[in-house]
Design goal:
- This protein has 87 residues and is mainly alpha-helical.
- It has one domain (3-86).
- It is built from 4 helices and 2 strands.
- A hairpin with a 2-residue loop joins strand 1 (32-33) and strand 2 (36-37).
- 25% of the residues are buried.
Length: 87
């Protein structure tokens, strides 16, 4: 899956019945930062760095007040984006 396809999917996915995986309830918190997804204003690369440092997804979600789904989607985006950068 290409990053563009994942972004399109994320815009249409839901968390707790409303909003999308990276925006939650559609509040004023930015969904994107520098053109990249940012769940609740947290850049996906920050979440990926925490994960690479050994923090479990549940701890990352708790630390940044995110759902486990938001963290999983962010990590998935970063893995796909990294593969695109290498290719």
């Amino acid at each position: 899956m290409r990053p563009r396809d994942l972004l399109r999917r994320l815009r249409h996915s839901s968390v707790a019945g409303s909003g999308n995986a990276f925006g939650g309830d559609g509040s004023e918190i930015p969904k994107y930062s520098f053109g990249q997804p940012a769940p609740r204003g947290v850049r996906t690369e920050v979440l990926a760095e925490e994960f690479r440092a050994g923090a479990p997804g549940e701890s990352i979600a708790e630390l940044y007040v995110l759902t486990a789904e938001q963290v999983d989607e962010a990590l998935r985006f970063e893995m796909i984006a990294a593969n695109s950068r290498v290719a």
